[in-house]
Design goal:
The chain is an all-alpha fold. It is about 70% helix and about 0% strand.
């Protein structure tokens, strides 16, 4: 009898495994079909205006900042920031090329890629600039830089962590709550990790 029960359990276990395997396979096939259907439609989407893009403007207070101690690295960062200010910058984090082609047309994909590339350069540069300012004891300027970076929706986790650290060190830990709220709006796979770490920092 025990052998019969064991055999039945093995049999039904195999059936359940096969069912789950086939179900997952069908889901993957359906996802693949959906992706290729969207990609097909995207490739035939006509060019559309880019007027509704959220263009990012680097604020004048960052472009004209004058730290008390100017190092070669700081000078290089400020020059790069000035150069970036003349480009079109858009945060397209969370959008795939297919999403962008469907919304703005295939003919715009290279332009949009350039805008997003400028954004990646911007947030990377802002993090480096903030670190250099912090190392030079220019925390007020570092906070300005990081607050701007966060306002653009950056998902550079170090920017959030350094800003939270500076808030605590400068006696304004209550600002971490607003930082957490900002992080919760991110369209990035980094969102949950950033929020969890900020919550821990705010305790």
């Amino acid at each position: 009898m025990n052998l019969l029960i064991f055999s039945s359990l093995v049999f039904f276990g195999c059936l359940l495994f096969t069912f789950c395997l086939n179900r997952n396979k069908r889901k993957e096939e359906a996802a693949d079909r959906e992706f290729w259907n969207r990609e097909y439609q995207a490739n035939f989407t006509r060019k559309k205006p880019l007027d509704d893009l959220d263009y990012i403007t680097i604020p004048e207070n960052l472009l004209s900042m004058q730290p008390d101690i100017i190092t070669e690295e700081l000078t290089d960062c400020l020059v790069e920031l000035q150069d970036l200010s003349s480009t079109k910058i858009v945060n397209l984090t969370g959008y795939t090329n297919t999403d962008l082609k469907l919304r703005y047309g295939t003919a715009n994909i290279n332009i949009l890629s350039d805008y997003d590339f400028h954004y990646t350069n911007l947030v990377t540069l802002l993090q480096k600039l903030a670190e250099l300012l912090h190392d030079s004891l220019e925390d007020a300027l570092a906070i300005e830089v990081l607050e701007f970076a966060v306002s653009t929706g950056t998902d550079v986790s170090k920017s959030y962590y350094l800003l939270a650290k500076l808030y605590r060190e400068n006696g304004t830990p209550e600002k971490i709550d607003a930082l957490i709220q900002q992080a919760q709006t991110l369209q990035s796979i980094m969102k949950d990790v950033i929020v969890e770490n900020l919550q821990a920092a705010g305790q």
